[in-house]
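From the thread on structure requests for the teaching lab: each student submitted one protein with a one-line request. Submission from student K.M.:

"Model Transposase from Aliterella atlantica CENA595, C-alpha cells only."
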Amino acid sequence: MNRWQNYKQLELIPDSAPAPKSRKLNIAYPLVAGWRSLLNALAREQVYEQRTEYLERCWLMSYSEPYSNKSPALRKLWNLMD
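Reply posted by the TA:
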C-alpha cells in the first residue's frame, strides 16, 4: 500500500478522488533555498539588534527617578494612601 492509498483510507477519501500529481524537480529550488537562508539570517540579525538596543536602553534608564521625591505621581499616591 503506497502513501496515497494509506492516506486515502485513513481520511476516508472516496475512491473517485484522483491521486495527487507527483512533484517535478524544481529548477528554482536552489534559488528559493538561498533566498530562505538569507531571510532567516536577516531575521536573526534583526532580533539580535533589537535585543541589544533594548538592553542598552535599560542600562541608560535611571531607575531612581520614579521613586524620588520629585515625582508628583508618587506623591499623589502617598497622599491617597494616607
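TA comment: The first helix runs from residue 3 to 10. The chain has a mean pLDDT of 83.
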